Amino acid sequence: MADLGFGSVIGQWNGAWLMTRFGIVGGGLMGHGIAVALARAGHDVAVYDVDPRTLATFHSRVGQALAQCGITGAQAERISAHVTTVPALNDVAREADVIVEAVPERLEAKHRVLAQLESAAAPATPIWTNTSVLSITRVAEGMVRPRRLAGVHWWNPPYLIPLVEVAPGARTEQRVVDDACELLTAMGKTIVRLRRDVPGFVGNRLQFALLREALHLLDQGVCDPATIDTVMRSSLGLRWASVGPMENADYIGLRLTRDILRNLAPHLSTDKEDFPSIDKLLGEGHQGRSSGTGLLTWPPGREAEVRQRLDEGIRRNLTTTP
């Protein structure tokens, strides 16, 4: 079947984006959070998930998310009215102006869902994959119209964190990326547009490069996990919300930055497959929060305390970041 080009399928009126009908496949952690962010912006959202239990709790989780945003009562009811759940994937595909794929990070799962969506959706309907680590080009493999697929990576929780990373695959139509960026900008999101497809976008590559070095410090017996968290929260975490690494490199001077790198880089981790600190724990059945023990211990109450601290910290930083 011939590939089709794309015009703008999302309407504007006097420069403002009209209400857009979104379909979301996947109603879990990211799917429900994206739905809340879209509904707060006035868009209608239909959500499908293969697991009936996920759909059964969906509206209560939407209400909890709105409460985290300080939205309750009649205002919460008005926003929640924009979100519906549907019993079949085809119901999402047929009615949506934009489809969001938010299924687990497994290529075979994404390929299966995208094939179903393409068989039911109109040929020009754009699809946004919310993968955070997979190549957009590889996600698009097997699609009849890979030009309709863009990587649109929301950060968790999507209704609080403003950043959305947008990236093309090797065959993505430019208009699909343009429309995504313009629509999200109109929602008040902070958009970064990548020049090309790269696994992990920008944010996760930075995040997991740091995590790799943290695990290397554990493996080398330099410190314990709590020390790493203390260092991050009491130094870098305080600075990075205001001054990023590129600006800081210029600020301290590129000559000093280069001298530091020359001395430090040979000692940094280059591990690619083996991560003993995690592998040993996993081998012993320690999964982290879900099992009660991981790099740290998770006694009753810690999960809720961490969730509250995280949400409050994000909101606090949003009010103080320049």
From TrEMBL:
This is 3-hydroxyacyl-CoA dehydrogenase NAD-binding domain-containing protein. Residues 23-196 form the 3-hydroxyacyl-CoA dehydrogenase NAD binding domain. The keyword Nucleotidyltransferase does not apply. It comes from the Bacteria. Belongs to the 3-hydroxyacyl-CoA dehydrogenase family. Keywords: Oxidoreductase. Residues 200-298 form the 3-hydroxyacyl-CoA dehydrogenase C-terminal domain. Pathway: Lipid metabolism; butanoate metabolism. Signal peptide: none annotated. It comes from Actinomadura fulvescens. Pfam families: 3HCDH (PF00725), 3HCDH_N (PF02737). InterPro entries: 3-OHacyl-CoA_DH (IPR022694), 3-OHacyl-CoA_DH_CS (IPR006180), 3-OHacyl-CoA_DH_NAD-bd (IPR006176), 3HC_DH_C (IPR006108), 6-PGluconate_DH-like_C_sf (IPR008927), 6PGD_dom2 (IPR013328), NAD(P)-bd_dom_sf (IPR036291). Residues 281-302 are annotated as: Disordered.
